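Q: what sequence does this backbone want?
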């Protein structure tokens, strides 16, 4: 019997190569305590095998395991959804829509929409606040502009991040590097009783320590070539930025500012589940409860 944590691409295809197996797996994830009617909560359910539907004996409501999920009304076979989810969560630097198109044998539009629907589903909701020692930093994302020096930032998007040592990350596109923006991000994502917040010497971080003294603020002076002082550094966040930019250059090739937050959500999920042997299963659970992302909404201005 294949264990959840033993899943790799070959075993995934072997296990979920037909629609019936995929539907059975989704049922175990959606209703771990047994089939349940989404309308009345009834537990006595009959199967209509010829239509791949379920029928509630209490209220006579007919439904399927994909009803009300992002899989519903999708023309893509479930097994291709499974492969797409696996490739996104297991690819350290992500996978482009072009590569997904080639792998699944779909159109580019289908692959691009599929990738974005999965990213939207992976977005963390009501995430726990970061605790302990937290590193905070910001970076600029965007390519070079011909004729402009390397310091030109007119085409850049600011991304701010926080990293809990030996824990999770939080990433977000923000309007700028000003004090109000950076302090607001930290207040929204870091617990008020965190042990310490480590940053570089950017002036906007000043005053981020808690008024009660429960959370101290320490910095390293990058302008003076100081990158580590004892355990004070932002190297973990720098590694996250390196991973993000390698993903953009090596996998996605280019990312629009409009959709950058979605790519950050994907990176967050993958990074925060880096030690989770059940990452594929947990990603599939998120897809079962996520809202559908219509193509029209995705391309709207």
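A:
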């Amino acid at each position: 019997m294949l264990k959840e944590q033993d899943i790799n691409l070959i075993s995934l295809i072997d296990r979920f190569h037909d629609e019936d197996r995929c539907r059975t797996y989704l049922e175990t994830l959606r209703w771990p305590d047994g089939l349940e009617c989404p309308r009345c909560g009834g537990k006595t359910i009959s199967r209509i095998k010829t239509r791949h539907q379920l029928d509630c004996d209490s209220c006579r409501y007919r439904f399927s395991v994909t009803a009300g999920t992002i899989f519903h009304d999708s023309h893509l076979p479930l097994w291709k959804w499974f492969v797409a989810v696996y490739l996104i969560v297991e690819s350290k630097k992500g996978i482009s829509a072009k590569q997904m198109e080639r792998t699944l044998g779909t159109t580019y539009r289908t692959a691009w929409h599929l990738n974005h629907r999965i990213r939207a589903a992976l977005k963390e909701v009501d995430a726990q606040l970061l605790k302990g020692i937290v590193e905070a930093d910001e970076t600029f994302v965007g390519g070079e502009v011909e004729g402009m020096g390397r310091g030109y930032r007119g085409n850049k998007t600011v991304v701010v991040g926080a990293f809990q040592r030996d824990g999770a990350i939080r990433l977000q596109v923000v309007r700028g590097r000003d004090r109000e923006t950076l302090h607001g991000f930290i207040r929204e994502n870091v617990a008020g009783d965190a042990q310490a917040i480590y940053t570089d010497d950017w002036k906007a971080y000043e005053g981020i320590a808690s008024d009660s003294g429960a959370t101290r603020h320490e910095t390293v002076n990058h302008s003076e070539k100081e990158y580590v002082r004892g355990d004070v550094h932002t190297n973990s966040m720098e590694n996250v930025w390196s991973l993000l930019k390698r993903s953009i250059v090596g996998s996605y090739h280019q990312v629009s500012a409009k959709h950058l937050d979605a790519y950050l959500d994907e990176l967050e999920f993958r990074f925060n589940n880096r030690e989770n042997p059940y990452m594929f299963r947990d990603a599939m659970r998120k897809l079962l409860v996520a809202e559908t992302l219509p193509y029209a909404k995705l391309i709207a201005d």
